[in-house]
Amino acid sequence: MQKQILKISGMTCSACSSGLEKYLNKQKGIINASVNLVLEQALIEYADDLTIDDLNTFVQNAGFKSLGVYDEHEEKKQNHNQLLLILFSLLSIIVLYISMSHMIGLPVISFLNMMTHPINYAICLLILTIPYLFYGFDILKNGYKNLIHKSPNMDTLVSIGVLASFLYSLFGTIMIIRGRIEYVENLYYESACIVLFFIKLGRFIDGRSKEKTKEAIKDLVSITPEKAILKTESGEKEVTLDEVKKGDILICKPGMKVAVDGMITKGASHFDETFITGESMPVKKDKNAKIVAGSLNIDGYIEYKAEKIGRDSTISEIVRLVVEATNTKAPISKIADKVSGIFVPSIIVIAILTFLIYLALGNEINDALTHFVTVLVVACPCALGLATPLAIVVSEGLCAKNGILVKTSETLENAHKVDTVIFDKTGTLTYGHLHISEVFNYSDYSNNKLLSIVGSLEAKSTHPIAGAFKEYTKDKKEIQEFKNLAGLGLTGTINKKQYYIGNHKILTSLKLKNQKIKDEKILAERGNSIVYVIENQKIIALIGVKDIVRENASKVISELKNMGKVVIMLTGDNELTAKKVAKELGISKIIANVMPKDKVGEIKKMMDNGKKVMMIGDGINDAPSLATALIGVSVSSGTDIANNSADVILMNDNLLSLLNLITISKKTIRNIKQNLFWAFFYNVCMIPIAIGLLSRWNIVMNPMVAGFAMTVSSFTVILNALRLKRIQLRRD
User: Fold this and answer.
1) What residues contact residue 60 under an 8 Å CB cut-off, 6+ apart?
2) Domain spans of the chain, in order of start
3) Is the dihedral of CA 303, 307, 310, 315 positive or negative?
4) How confident is residue 645, by pLDDT bands cut at 50, 70 and 90?
5) What does the CA dihedral 200, 201, 202, 203 come to, rounded to 10 degrees?
6) Strand segments (E) across 37-172
7) Average of per-residue pLDDT across 30-34
8) Catalytic entry in 272, 424, 573, 653
């Protein structure tokens, strides 16, 4: 299976995007397709036997145009032809003046007077209308294509209305030339012109506003420099990023940005990683530390080895995740999709019935036609189509800008619904920065030699406890037959002696009697995690290591409880240690001594009881638990984002981001509901007026007013969605 994001041209409303999505999902070889109206993209998962050309053909057959594979580094602002819009604005004033000046008491152009020179009047308006048909040809073409493909959309409504007005007016013009001057009162050229103009104006405004929703994504793309300094045998050489190869040694001086992801080989400095993590405080990086493209070098000279370049870089991975998330469908968007699927055909039926009923009641054909066109134009579902995707794009960008990577829009919708929040302890509620606090040494080795043996083994482990022995790894021993023992510890052979290092459960696994329970209890009461050291089936040491509770952890837990969330600590650590940390943080419910597979069972049990569970843990060790929960949140930032199994990644490791995620989720869903309400409310109010049901109270509408009203409704939804950018988030 493969996955690609295609740029799509020609979509104008939710009926377009939902129609294309349905069409793509019906095609052989396409596993799943999700179309985003705002970003004008299609996220397509497809079988290996299909090619990009096949996907482009599918899109074209559906009546749209594929602009190829999305490239975050080539994303440009849409090129709206402002000059053309200005020219047609002036032309629209001329059209309105010629056709309506006599109605509002303005001087009438004598040779275009409809009463004295009807042929001049009719032919002049016909000539002025023809440029509008070319200007709006894309609308007319899309409307026709979508009607042919049985997926009528907004363009279909406009096309039918405009062509009906134009063709009837053309018929009237022919009749005037033939001497039937009474038809001069039945010309609707200005309606066709002004409706097309307002649609174009609306799309221009929409396009400009949509660009603002993507600013956070563009900011991420633009923070990487265009050039790097390459270290060569002959000295320094400035190169473009395309010239950088994996393994190259690059130079970064104070005030410069890191060009690609890499590892420091020489020097040290403080780095500003605000754009990547949302964390404003500079971070110190020394030799062998990982650095991320786009980080600003503040005060030191460094040399670093290029490790991830181009599409493999952290920035590219972040952008890909954000773009994919905005292309996924939030469950709430299904409301708009279902409605738009039946809305357009229903409007066409209503317009035709309105036309026929007016004729049946004895009204003139021009009156019936006016209401027919007005219903079609005023009911265009632009606002309905923008309601959900605009809010999602703004919120996803806001999350990304603040170091919160949300992988799907469904996760964004569900985040505020969780009622149970489960925290892992080590590396989650605590930093995972452990240090050795006490050693009970039962061997003949000195403490330094003992810790050197343990450090040599732990150096091969990825568990957070391994960090406590980092300073004892300089004199590494040669290790053979090394193995990680899931949920227990690790084992290896040094100088033909078999060592096991792990928690108390490793004794059960080895069928050894625990004769050190008293010492274990002492260490546990002092808040230590306990490491057993076993040599050739004999306990030779107990080592106590302590962790540091994360900054803001107690504040976050307090606020979660104030929100009505149940907070639980789920840890593989012993109960005494877990209780000590839980008491410090204000957590009353603890589940301790739990192996990774049992954590999954505990979460499933809660979810089977109807709980909506959010699990916060280590992105590697807690992968099964994170994948099982309704929402899995990883506080393991790292740079290997692609391999993280969580639904949400906190790039800054700051637990306050959890509260920000819930806040953004809650306000996004509220914003979407507001948008949907106003979109529905607009149509409920406008369609009866367009039909003429309120005419006895002099509340009437013509096609030109309908086009303007439709533009205003879309603009209202856009402005409401952009309000999300002003959400007040919690800071340190």
Assistant:
1) 66
2) 2-79, 226-312, 404-424+550-662, 435-546
3) negative
4) low
5) 50
6) 41-46, 65-69
7) 89
8) 424
d(CA 640, CA 651): 11
Please say if 49 is a catalytic residue: no
d(CA 192, CA 139): 12
Summary count for the chain: helices (H), strands (E) = 23, 26
Confidence of residue 80 (pLDDT cuts 50, 70, 90): very low
Q: 549 to each of 431, 577, 641, 655, how far by Cα in Å?
A: 6, 12, 25, 11
- 564 Cβ contact list (under 8 Å, min separation 6): 419
Helix, strand, coil percent values for the chain (each to nearest 5): 50, 20, 30
How far is the C-alpha of 659 from the C-alpha of 557, rounded, in Å? 10
**Beta-carbon count within 10 A of 33 CB:** 23
Domain 435-546 has CATH 3.40.1110.10: yes
The answer to whether 304 touches 258, Cβ cutoff 8 Å, is yes
Quickly list H helices, 379-514.
Answer: 382-401, 409-414, 447-458, 505-510
> Minimal CA–CA distance to 41: which of 75, 73, 81?
75
- Give the model's confidence band at 542: pLDDT under 50 very low, under 70 low, under 90 confident, else very high: very high
For 226-312, CATH number?
2.70.150.10
Instruction: Measure the CA–CA gap between 211 and 496, rounded to whole angstroms.
Output: 65
Main-chain phi, psi angles of 369, to 5 degrees: -65, -40
Report the alpha-carbon distance of residue 395 to residue 93 in Å, rounded. 39
CATH class of 2-79: alpha beta
Report the C-alpha gap between 240 and 224 in whole angstroms. Answer: 12
Instruction: Give me the torsion for CA of 642, 644, 650, 651, rounded to 10°.
Output: -40
Helix (H, G, I), strand (E, B) or coil at 43: strand
Q: Indicate the pTM of the whole model.
A: 0.59
Question: How far is 198 from 446, CA to CA, in rounded Å?
Answer: 85
**Domain 2-79 matches domain 435-546 at the CATH topology level:** no
End-to-end Cα separation, the chain, in angstroms? 43
Share of the chain above pLDDT 90, in %: 18
Which of these, 329, 545, 591, lies nearest to 451 by C-alpha position?
Answer: 545
pLDDT exceeds cutoff 50 at 205: yes
Q: Cα 197 from chain centroid? A: 33
Separation between Cα atoms, residue 657 and residue 85, nearest integer Å: 44
Select, from the ranges 193-202, 562-571, 610-619, the one with the highest average predicted confidence (pLDDT).
562-571
Per-residue model confidence (pLDDT) at position 76 = 42
Domain 404-424+550-662: which CATH number of 3.40.30.10, 3.40.50.1000, 3.40.50.300, 4.10.400.10: 3.40.50.1000
Contact 638, 619 (CB under 8 A): yes
CA 235 to CA 589: how far, in whole Å? Answer: 61
Round to whole Å and give the CA distance between 51 and 58: 11
pLDDT of res. 75? 44
